[in-house]
Design a protein that fits this description.
The chain has one domain. Helix content is 30%, strand content 34%. It has helices at residues 2-9, 20-72, 143-146, 226-233; strands at residues 77-78, 82-84, 87-100, 103-119, 130-139, 151-158, 167-170, 189-200, 207-218. Strands 1, 2, 3, 4, 5 and 6 form a 6-stranded antiparallel beta sheet that branches. Strands 7-8-9 form a 3-stranded antiparallel beta sheet, with helices on one face. A hairpin with a 2-residue loop joins strand 2 (82-84) and strand 3.
Amino acid sequence: MMRRLSRALRPRRDDAGITLIEMLIAMGLMSIVMAVATSGMVQVFRVNSATETQAVGQSQLNIATQRLTEQVRYASWVGNAYPVAEARYINFALPQAKVVGGVPSQTVTLYCVRLRVHLDAQPANGRDGRGILQSNKWEQGKPTTTATGWRTLASNIDTAYPTGEPFEFKPRSSTPVFAGSTTTTANADLLRIRLTVRLARAGSKEDMVASTDTTYTAANTITASTETVTNSKKCETENPT
C-alpha cells in the first residue's frame, strides 16, 4: 500500500517542465518573429516619413507658384533674369490699385516685383547648398519708402539648379518658346520658373526631392502701352531697401 502511494505522489515525467534545449529553441523562434515584425514596422515608418516629407516640399512649392500666378498673370512687363554672385534675380511690373490706409483706391499704380533665389545663411535642415525663394515689392519710383522687404516664398531650394536656371524669360513672339513646350510662338511675355526643393528625411541621409516647372503668361504685356513699358523697365535699376 505504501509503495503504491509513494508512486502516486512522484511527479510524472510529463509534468517535469521544459528542457533547456526546448527553451533555447523557443527563444530563437521568438527572436526571429520579433526581428521580422520590427523590420516591417521600420519599413512602414520610413515610407510614411518619406511620403510626408515629400508632401511638405510639394505643398511649399504649390503655395509659392499659386502666389506668383496671381501676380505674373497681370504683369505689364517682365525683365531678363540675371545673376548676382550666387543669387539669381528677375523683375516684373504689376499695375495695381494703390492702397491708401490699408484700403485699395481707384488709382492704378505701377508696382515693381523682384524675385530672387539665394543661399540661405541658416538652412532649415542644416545642410549646405540650400537657398530660399523671396520676393520684394515696391511702388515704381519709390523703392526706399514703399518696399515690402524680402518675403520668403519657399525654402530649402537646391541652388545647384539640377533642372536648369530657376528663372527664364521669353518675350512675346519668341520662337520657339521653351524646350519641351507644345506652344511654338508666345503671344505674351512668358516667365518660366524651375525650382527643386530638397528636404531632410528623418532617419535617412538621403533627401526627399520635390520639383516644379511652371510657365507663367503675363497677359497684360499684350496691351501694355509704350509709356507703361518704359516706366516698367525702371524697376531693373531701382534698389529697394
